């Protein structure tokens, strides 16, 4: 891992429909102990920060959510010196008041996936990382402020349930998630957010709501991938504006969160 030279301090993973972020960039290939990442890392500048961008599904959208090499992607960011990782994603709504086109700054996730490689710590040092508060409180507050200043309809809290994919939910599954009170459904936030935390980096999710999941049990038409992409593309400019505004606000030093001390508190 590159501990001697910082190439970027902020990382951004692009989700479905979000394959290009910065214009004046340097493309870098990164090798990892966990195999190949989803794509190259694209390095650019926003305000005082060097930013590393990677499309998590590949720039040509060739990698489905259940086959993303999350460990390689996160390790690649860490190896470049990244300290904070922003993970925007397309997501479905589980509640009527969270409408397509809204943004949700999630504060919790529920893992409903199966079989994904979800830790860097397979031994011999036993490490138990708490996921009680999975997202960085400082980044969340800055994102909320940036969204409000931009006039974006934004929900400042929300729980995202992460399903394995690539299929969407059945109506029965969707109804169960809705009755739990969870707001958002997605296929990529776990283990991505957790692995970021394992690497002592700050994690932030910005969910762009593209649809009502499984038609909220018949109240609206069931979700289709075409409609998801249509809503995302129509709101892509809002997402990019929010990200630029957010990143410009981020202080260079991490002094208002404990994310950098995650591993120190996870071992005996």
Write up what this structure looks like.
This protein has one domain (10-265): Nucleoside phosphorylase domain (Rossmann fold), CATH 3.40.50.1580. It has helices at 70-79, 137-149, 171-179, 189-198, 215-218, 225-249; strands at residues 10-14, 26-28, 41-46, 49-55, 84-93, 103-104, 108-112, 154-155, 159-163, 184-186, 202-212. Strands 1, 2, 3, 4, 5, 6, 7, 8, 9, 10 and 11 form an 11-stranded mixed beta sheet that branches. It is globular and about 55 Å long. With 268 residues, it is of the alpha/beta class. It has 6 helices and 11 strands.
List the helices and strands and how they pair.
Layout: E1 10-14, E2 26-28, E3 41-46, E4 49-55, H1 70-79, E5 84-93, E6 103-104, E7 108-112, H2 137-149, E8 154-155, E9 159-163, H3 171-179, E10 184-186, H4 189-198, E11 202-212, H5 215-218, H6 225-249
Parallel strand pairs: 1-4, 1-5, 5-11, 6-8, 7-9, 9-10
Antiparallel strand pairs: 2-3, 3-4, 5-10, 6-11
Entry summary:
The chain has 6 helices and 11 strands. By secondary structure, it is of the alpha/beta class.
The CATH topology turns out to be Rossmann fold
Ends apart, CA distance between termini: 24 Å
Q: Please trace the helix and strand order, writing H or E for each element.
A: EEEEHEEEHEEHEHEHH
The residue ranges in which pLDDT falls below 50 over 5 or more consecutive positions are none
- Radius of gyration, Cα only, in angstroms? 17 Å
Specify the oligomeric state.
single chain
Query: What count of domains describes the coordinates?
Result: 1
CATH class: Alpha Beta
Helix content: 25-40%
| Structural class by sheet pairing and helices | alpha/beta
Mean pLDDT across residues: 92
